[in-house]
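Q: Structure for this?
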Amino acid sequence: MNDGIRQLQSDLAAVRYVADDSLVTALHLAVRLGRPLLLEGPAGVGKTALAKALSDVHGRSLVRLQCYEGLDVTHALYDWNYPKQLLAVQDPRTSASQSVYSEEFLLQRPLLLALRAEPSPVLLIDEVDRADEAFEALLLEFLSEFQVTIPELGTVRAAGRPLVILTSNRTRDLSDALRRRCLYQWLDYPGYEQEVTILQMYLPDVAPRLLRQVVRAVRRLRSASVLKPPGLAESIDWANALAELGTQSLDEETAAVTLGCLLKTQEDVLWLTERGLATLWNV
Amino acid sequence: MVNRKGTCHTVERVDPSREQTRREPSNSDTDHKAQAEAMEVGKRVSAEVVAQVSRFAPWLRSHGFRATAPETEAALSALTHLDLTDEGDVMCALRAVYAKSPAQWGSFESLFRRYFRGEGRSFEEKRRVTGGAARGQAHKDWRDEEQVKVAAMSPLPGYSRDVGERYAVKVDVDILKAVARVTTRAVSRLPAPLSRKLEPTVRGRVDLRRTTKSAMRTAGQVQRWLWRREAPDRPRIVMLMDVSGSMKPFAPFLTTLAWTFLHSRARAEVFLFSTRLVRVTALLRRRGLTGLSERELGLSGLQGGTRIGDSLGELMDRHRGIIHRQTVLVMASDGFDAGHPERLHTAMEALRQCALRIVWLNPLLHEQEYDPTISAMRTALPYLNAFVDVHDVSTWQAAVDAGLFAESLTARSFRSGSLRWPG
């Protein structure tokens, strides 16, 4: 493996993010080529956490844009401070040549902030699939040229290219135009050993035997047809809760009272209790 | 490029079928462009690597990848940052550049190995065994008791994983206009929840942007307030289309129906299913009119014996996010299911809780002999909002006129004619 890639992998491990060879290679290339990285995968596999880890590794600030339906240019890119503009227009001290469409009245939103920040930050565009198709079109210019056009001001170019991470849970298909501008990485649930390593990293004081039991149980739930399969965060929460209660080994009583850390819908809890909690650890 | 021992590999292993694929005339200009652009990058990697990657792109295209000049350029740029003797790194880098979906992500590694190392299976015709053929074989080798026993114990054709017809799906352009007209009417009747988008109106919240702009004309004095409110959202439709052999006669109409949903005002998603589920929204939207082969649709992995419960379970497991409480789920299937009824029951129960409405279009419902008493239909009926016969333009129109997608869908709407209300 390339030295740069190996270094990045160990840097990520130092900030408690375990990345496999494939992911770390894609990250290395995203940094070196200045291309956005599109991460897809089920919820709870560490897509958002990766952006946070990267900002720690590179010592850059993290700018986050949480996407949602109806997200538009005024919430993602920029807006004008309208009350201030109105006051300025009515203020007799304002000279005729002074425009109310200037930097003074500009409200910067996450995308514009990321372009102007120095040093260039890590920009996380989270759950981009939740935004509308129209917002994707807005992103195209941003992701290919790292510039945005504000009609009243002109084109704003990035001083340095931000490291852009886009995440998607695939609630809808993203356009080909957006995909083509990004490097792509599919993030799945970690393997057994990898998940044990992650838990050990977060919970070094918990008995390894208990962590292994937790991981086995969580993996069993993921392979079953539960409505909300537990992600990594749930694994960590559950193991933490069990350790807090002084559990050395999984048993029905402790599992029953800590189930809320693991399953997030009543249907899933019913599904498991009907089959018996012991199915989590019995072969 | 590289071999397993980590030394430079200069000569690719080429088989004739692959060579033929590479000489495809289509997109050759793009490849020349890619090669020219790659020359710049090529100053940092050897000409041989440039040539290999440039030839890899058209081969990937023949396997459904959208590998164009910019991707090849990015791939070559990526290689300049890597140790080319490490095959794993090279594969990961090319995958990050060329793969654009989970399916492509999953298949890339084996394609990479096949191309650069000649490993794995090459093109191989899938074995097709029909019930008749199986029986004929048994008669022919009547004396071979072992074979007779095998034939006798083999599952019924509809339940066998080896039996099953795969076919291309294509929009029927002759009926497209008529279907689109009815679909537009149907979609306009669907309930449209309010979105977070705002639109100008005469009452609602103050629209500061427009009010300010208007006030600029009067020296900053607000003469009139302008308002805005939430705009109606686009209705959501998820259509599941059964592509088992028994549904082949209805495939052109149903494909046309799916295509019109995709090009309507609705926010639509389309899936095909038989033994598993395949999301085809983007493909169908783009190329439904020209037709999609089974390979392009990724159906070659499907086996015989429809598993409706398993497919719906897969929808809930893998695409749970698209089933909202405003989603209208449209199932198009004849209901012949070789899976376990319990799976179907579980999946339907979960869907019932998540979706706004479940509509089952059954093209066999108009036939006199057909009665929906088969196990799968019996299991599904209690969870349906409507169970209707739709197999051509006229039945589609009749269903929509009867209020199939009306906001106030009631049981009474479906008690007449060929339209039925479940239960």
